[in-house]
Each structure stands twice: as structure tokens, then as C-alpha cells.
Specification:
about 375 residues, alpha+beta, Phosphorylase Kinase, domain 1, Transferase(Phosphotransferase), domain 1, 2 domains, six-stranded mixed sheet, two-stranded antiparallel sheet, 10 helices, disordered C terminus, nucleotide-binding
């Protein structure tokens, strides 16, 4: 009986200590974020109270989407303009994602970068207020395009895909070279590209971004960050080279490949094993100068645009970072003639090993 009493007391003590530790950590995280907001200086975006956010979203009535970070709701600001409110479910990495988002986007002003209009940080409540993008993310226009039950409004023609790929490239080139600090995004993928009413693409979600000095060409990181299937090989294994702005170029190339194929790059359900990894399958067709075999190509102009996007994507996903073009060169290639483009060496990697997105990097790796 004495032993049972001692065990029960110990369990209650441990539970109490864990409770205190949790709230102590939460308090420390909030102090870190508040200190950041004070030290960062006057921000270009407004700070809202939680009541204002609740009123803005009509008590979070209309949900636009959900992810590992939390949920996004449709709202309306005081001036009547529509906004998208991202409500963060919890702080990750001492609030690193929240601070990254506020710090990175508040430095930017570009037609191809989403605008952060405000934020809320009040106790445990955290939210980010963005301009509303009526056409949502690029993801649904790529991966839903070939669905038998798809909405015809989800179809993007090659001219539109070409313009979207060029807009994303311009946004990334601005982040790498155009603003007062170099911003590396580290999570470029279709889900994080938003489209306005005119289908102008805007790079969004800077939760994994790193802000560097313009003179810095190489970035040090404690662990991998990004989304499996888009992560550059050097990000999860330093043997492939140094992490730099070329890591964003790789992610852009993988996304561009999916825009061309209208499918995810890795399709384990493909009947033909040669079609499982799309970049390898399409490379072979380009190399042998065969028909591209893309069902959405309707005429010669479509064929030229598709071929150009394929070649650019293959240059971007080169295993060696030094062989990849900078985003300025990507823009030049997309704007130039396809006849001037050389076929790159065959890219050898398909996707990072599952261990790259294991529990040790859970705070920095997006799983959407």
C-alpha cells in the first residue's frame, strides 16, 4: 500500500511538473516573439487584436483551407476589401515560422509576392492577414486539371502556364537579388503559389524562409527544411554541395516540371515504370527529339512553350547546384527562343529519402 501511494504521488508530481514546464515553455516562446516584434523596429504592417481578427472573419465562418500550420479563413477588412486570415494553431521552433513570415514579407513589395497586411499576436492567439487571392493556389489548377470530374474553369492553357512560370521566376529573382536583404524561401511548391483574379502568381508562405545578407552566397542550416519532392539534394545532404539561393532554383524546377506534366513528379501508381518519375520520362523524349506525349498540347505554339518549360525545369533540377541557373538566367531562358536552349545533362536524383523529413526535422519540414 505504501509503494502504491508513493507511485501515485510521483505520477501526480511528474504530471504537475510537465504541466508547469509546458506553460513555462509557451511563455518563453511568447516572450521571444514579443522581443522580436519590439526589436525589429517599425513594421510596415498593422498589428490587430484577436477581437478584430474574429470580427474580420465573422467568427471564422468561411474556411478556405487547412494545413499543418493551422487554417485559413476568408475575411473582410474595415475598408471592405477581402482578406485571407491564416490562424496558426501553435508556435513552432520558438515561434520561428511566425517571425520568419512577418520579417520576410514585411521587407518585400513586388507584384509576384503576396502582400502581408497585418498580424495578430495576443497571448496564445496568432494570425497573419494577407490580401485575398480569389483563384486560390496553383496546386488545384495543376493536379485537378486531368481529373475526370474536374471543373473546366480549372484548365490553364500553355500561354497562361508560361506567364505564370515567368511571374514566379520574377518573384524569386526579386527575393534573391531585388530587396534590401536576400530572402531564401525554402518551400517553393504549387501549394504556396497563389493566383489573383487575373491569374497573376504570387509567392506565399514564408514560414521556412531565411533572411541573409546580400553578400552571403552560402547559408548554414542545422537541419533540412522544405517539402519532400521539392527539397534540393544539398539541403538534406551537404555532400551534394552548399545550400544557397540555388536551392530555391531546384524547388522551382520541380514545380515547373509538375506544371508541364499536369501531375506530381512521382507517381507510384503509373502502369509503366518509366513513367513513375516524370522528369526522367520527359528527359528521354526531349533527348531523342520525340513527341512530348502531353495530351493538352493543341498546336505548334503550345509545343514550343512546353518544350521551353521542360528544358528550363531540367536545368533547374541539376544535382550539382553550380550547374543550375540563377533565377535571372531562368527568366532570360523563359523569355528567349527555345532554339537557343541547350539540352542539360540528365538529372539523376528523384526525391529526398524519407529520413530527410523525419521527426528530428519536424519543426522545419512542411508536410503539405
Amino acid at each position: 500500500m505504501v509503494l502504491v501511494v508513493i507511485v501515485c504521488c510521483l505520477k501526480r508530481k511528474l504530471a504537475y511538473d510537465s504541466f508547469i514546464f509546458f506553460w513555462k515553455n509557451q511563455g518563453q516562446d511568447r516572450q521571444i516573439v514579443e522581443a522580436f516584434l519590439r526589436s525589429y523596429g517599425p513594421l510596415q504592417v498593422r498589428r490587430y487584436s484577436y477581437l478584430e481578427v474574429k470580427k474580420m472573419t465573422n467568427s471564422f465562418k468561411e474556411k478556405l483551407g487547412k494545413g499543418g500550420y493551422g487554417s485559413v479563413y476568408k475575411g473582410k477588412s474595415n475598408d471592405g476589401s477581402l482578406v485571407a486570415v491564416k490562424v496558426l494553431s501553435k508556435l513552432k521552433g520558438n515561434g520561428e515560422e511566425f517571425m520568419n513570415e512577418v520579417a520576410a514579407i514585411s521587407r518585400t513589395s513586388h507584384v509576384n509576392i503576396v502582400s502581408l497586411l497585418g498580424f495578430c499576436f495576443e497571448g496564445s492567439e496568432k494570425a497573419l492577414i494577407y490580401e485575398f487571392m480569389p483563384n486560390g493556389s496553383l496546386e488545384k489548377f495543376i493536379f485537378d486539371a486531368n481529373s475526370p470530374n474536374r471543373d473546366h474553369d480549372h484548365h490553364l492553357g500553355w500561354e497562361q502556364l508560361d506567364q505564370i512560370s515567368l511571374g514566379i521566376a520574377r518573384g524569386l529573382e526579386y527575393l534573391h537579388r531585388g530587396c534590401n536583404a536576400r530572402i531564401l524561401h525554402f518551400d517553393i511548391k504549387p501549394h504556396n503559389i497563389l493566383l489573383d483574379e487575373n491569374f497573376t502568381p504570387k509567392v506565399s508562405d514564408f514560414g521556412l524562409a531565411k533572411i541573409c545578407n546580400m553578400k552571403e552566397s552560402i547559408v548554414s542550416m542545422a537541419c533540412a527544411r522544405g517539402t519532400a519532392g521539392y527539397i534540393a539534394p544539398e539541403v538534406f545532404c551537404r555532400n551534394f554541395g552548399a545550400v544557397s539561393h540555388k536551392s530555391d532554383v531546384y524547388s522551382y524546377g520541380m514545380m515547373l516540371s509538375e506544371m508541364v506534366g499536369g501531375r506530381r513528379n512521382i507517381n507510384a501508381e503509373a502502369e509503366d515504370t518509366s513513367e513513375i518519375y516524370f522528369p526522367h520520362w520527359i528527359y528521354k523524349r526531349i533527348e531523342l527529339d520525340e513527341e512530348l506525349g502531353l495530351p493538352s498540347i493543341m498546336n505548334e505554339e503550345d509545343k514550343v512553350r512546353a518544350r521551353k518549360m521542360i528544358i528550363v525545369s531540367l536545368w533547374c533540377i541539376q544535382t550539382d547546384p553550380s550547374n543550375r541557373p540563377a533565377m535571372k538566367e531562368v527568366i532570360d531562358m523563359l523569355e528567349g527562343s527555345v532554339d537557343c536552349l541547350q539540352i542539360p545533362p540528365k538529372p539523376y536524383l528523384s526525391s529526398p529519402p524519407k529520413s530527410a523529413v523525419g521527426s528530428s526535422t519536424a519543426t522545419l519540414v512542411s508536410t503539405q
